[in-house]
Amino acid sequence: MYDIDLHCMSYDVGSSKPDRKIFDAAEDMANQLLAAQVPHESRSPGLDQAPPTPWLKIYVGDEYEKDVVGARRAGWNPVFVGAETDVPGQENFLDWKQLGDMAVEEIFPEGSDPMTVRAENTQEFLEWAIKNLAREK
Q1: pLDDT top residue among 125 and 53
Q2: What is the residue extent of each domain of the chain?
């Protein structure tokens, strides 16, 4: 598994959240970073990069409309850390405290509609994610 660090800025893409273009641009950037880590001899002939591989896309944001709605529409799994207490569909949110020792794949199963996790702050969710991702390696 690779750690990915990238920045996808709206002024570079010409679009901002909740427009799907910004999420697609971030995914393209991540695929390019992953392809750069594949040895050249493993790449398909005539292609400058390795074929994209499926990967788990989690988007952490604090604005319901821009972050949660935008991420869902783009097929990303949103984690909502906003201070807003009354948002549409919150009855379908999974509180990060309910995650316990669940595997990441149980919370965000491949091929299913994106689940929304709600966290009180980013740090709490990241601590859970790091602990559970390390357990899966």
Answers
A1: 125
A2: 1-55, 56-137
Tell me how far apart the alpha carbons of residues 79 and 61 are, in angstroms, rounded to a whole number: 6
Cα separation, 90 vs 26, whole angstroms: 26
- The answer to whether the beta carbons of residues 58 and 75 sit under 8 Å apart is no
**Which pLDDT score is estimated for 124?**
84
What's this model's pTM, rounded to 2 decimal places?
A: 0.77
| Nearest alpha-carbon partner for 80 in 62, 98, 97 | 62
Amino acid at the residue 59:
Y
